[in-house]
Structures are given as C-alpha cells and as structure tokens.
Specification:
The protein is of the alpha+beta class. A hairpin with a 2-residue loop joins strand 4 and strand 5.
C-alpha cells in the first residue's frame, strides 16, 4: 500500500524528466522535458523521426561534468525547457532554501543543453556508502 501512495504522490506532483534531443537536421540540440508518467510509457515522443536520446536525467539525480577543467559531481535540483538544468554541488545541504535566501551567496549553477553536452555530462550513481560509479565521459 505504501508504494501505491508514493507512486500516486509522484504522479500528482508531475515530476519532470529532462532529455536533450540529438542534433536535428538543422544541427541544433533541443531539450525535451516530459512528465515522469510519460517517460515511463511505451510511446516515444520524438521531435524528429531520426532523433536518438543522448541523455535522460530525472530530478534528484547525480551527474558528473567538467567545469573549469575539473570533474565535479552535481545534484539536479530542477529543470526547465528554456533554462536547462539547475545544479547544486553534491555536498551542499539545504540548497533550495539557501538559493532563495538573499543573504546567502549560494546560487544554483544553471546550464543549457549545448554547454552541458560540451562539458561531457553523464549520469553517475552514488551508493549508500558514498561510492561513485562514473561511466566516464561520452566518447
């Protein structure tokens, strides 16, 4: 019974899934945000018939990408179609409240689809012990 409540709660909140689509015939990359329900359905909503998924990121996922020549682990706080992903360093606590506080200098890192792919973004997995499983940059 508990799983059903959590699932219903997740669907009612309409969590989002952010996926940058591959270059279209005009060479541009377009982000594609769908609800969690639509992401788990069998119907694939493609902006172009030849489009393939480059990345699939959910809210609260951990991602690794290069910033200023250093690989960092980031937490996906939120996502928007036009603004891209809003990321917080994985070791920052209470990031949402801190970002809203005007007195605190902490802010989310906002990154769009193009710069994100250039930075070599990839989804990483962190287990309960804090071990990071990183597949490495895409080739």
């Amino acid at each position: 019974m508990r799983k059903l409540i959590v699932l219903a709660n997740t669907l009612l909140k309409e969590d989002r899934v952010w996926t940058p689509t591959p270059p279209l015939p005009d060479g541009k990359i377009r982000p594609h945000v769908v609800t969690t329900f639509a992401a788990h359905s069998n119907v694939e909503d493609k902006p172009h018939p030849a489009a393939k998924r480059l990345l699939r990121v959910f809210k609260r996922d951990m991602v690794a990408l290069e910033r200023n020549g250093v690989t960092g682990i980031w937490y996906v706080q939120s996502m928007h179609v036009k603004n891209g992903l809003f990321l917080a360093p994985h070791n920052e606590a209470n990031a949402d409240a801190r970002a809203r506080d005007k007195a605190d200098p902490f802010r989310f890192w906002q990154i769009g689809a193009g710069p994100m792919l250039k930075a070599g973004i990839r989804r990483v997995h962190v287990d309960e012990m804090g071990r990071v499983r990183d597949p490495g940059p895409p080739s």
